[in-house]
Specification:
There is one protein chain. With about 200 residues, the protein is α/β, with parallel strands linked by helices. The protein folds into 2 domains: about 1-135, Response regulator (Rossmann fold), CATH 3.40.50; about 140-195, Winged helix-like DNA-binding domain superfamily/Winged helix DNA-binding domain (Arc Repressor Mutant, subunit A, Orthogonal Bundle), CATH 1.10.10. About 45% of the residues lie in helices and about 15% in strands. It contains 10 helices and 6 strands; from the N terminus they run βαβαβαβαβαβααααα. Strands 2-1-3-4-5-6 form a 6-stranded parallel beta sheet, with helices on both faces. Strand 1 (about 1-5), helix 1 and strand 2 form a beta-alpha-beta unit. The longest helix is centred in the C-terminal third of the chain and has 15 residues, at about 170-180. The radius of gyration is 19 Å and the shape is elongated. The protein starts with a strand and ends with a helix.
């Protein structure tokens, strides 16, 4: 019997996943808003953690593993994601995810993935293969991403410069570079392109 823990902050999504997985006789499924505290987890650690890729953006709230902690003694991490989100796939990889399933795909793929990662094998949904190749081609530097993330919040150049301890001219240069690299018309278009790719 494979012990599966579904973690998601949206109750309806979490309940639907649990109901789906409980139809499989080889799985023992439970759910929570976030991972339990470390001591509790040691007593009843699941073999596989299943979560949506968006939950990895807020580890403090969901309690999901941080980088390098997605497998091992605390169980393997399996994420549900969508196509055309190479940046999100890269974040899941950096968080130590062992399995990647297209959330728009057939439920049987999720069942297969759970069995595979429970055995310690990597699983990548076929429909996500091209996105994985794209994930290695992130055109922006970490600093350019930081500047774009602050621009996405509507921060003016002066505020971005102050928060990053840089000059306004340097921020303009980072923005111009980011706009050029992603083929955008302006900084808000660069933000949109980066968000669509899952880089932000």
């Amino acid at each position: 019997m494979i012990h599966v823990q579904v973690v998601h902050r949206v109750g309806l999504f979490r309940s639907a996943l649990v109901a789906l997985l409980r139809c499989e006789e080889t799985l023992h499924v439970s759910a929570s808003l976030k991972r339990p505290a470390h001591q509790e987890a040691l007593c009843s650690s699941p073999h596989v953690w299943v979560t949506d890729i968006d939950c990895l953006d807020d580890p403090a709230r969901t309690g999901m593993p941080g980088p390098g902690n997605g497998q091992g003694g605390m169980g393997a991490l399996l994420v549900l994601t969508s196509e055309r989100k190479p940046g999100a796939l890269m974040r899941a990889f950096e968080a130590g995810a062992l399995g990647y399933v297209n959330r728009d795909g057939d439920p049987s793929r999720l069942i297969e993935a759970i069995h595979r990662v429970a055995r310690g094998e990597r699983y990548v949904d076929d429909s996500l293969a091209c996105d994985f190749l794209q994930a290695t081609k992130l055109p922006l530097t970490p600093r350019e991403l930081s500047v774009l993330a602050l621009a996405a919040e509507g921060s003016p150049i002066g505020d971005i410069a102050a928060s990053l301890h840089l000059s306004s001219g340097t921020i303009r240069n980072y923005l111009a570079s980011a706009i050029r690299k992603v083929g955008a018309r302006n900084r808000m278009d660069a933000v949109r392109i980066s968000q669509d790719a899952g880089w932000l």
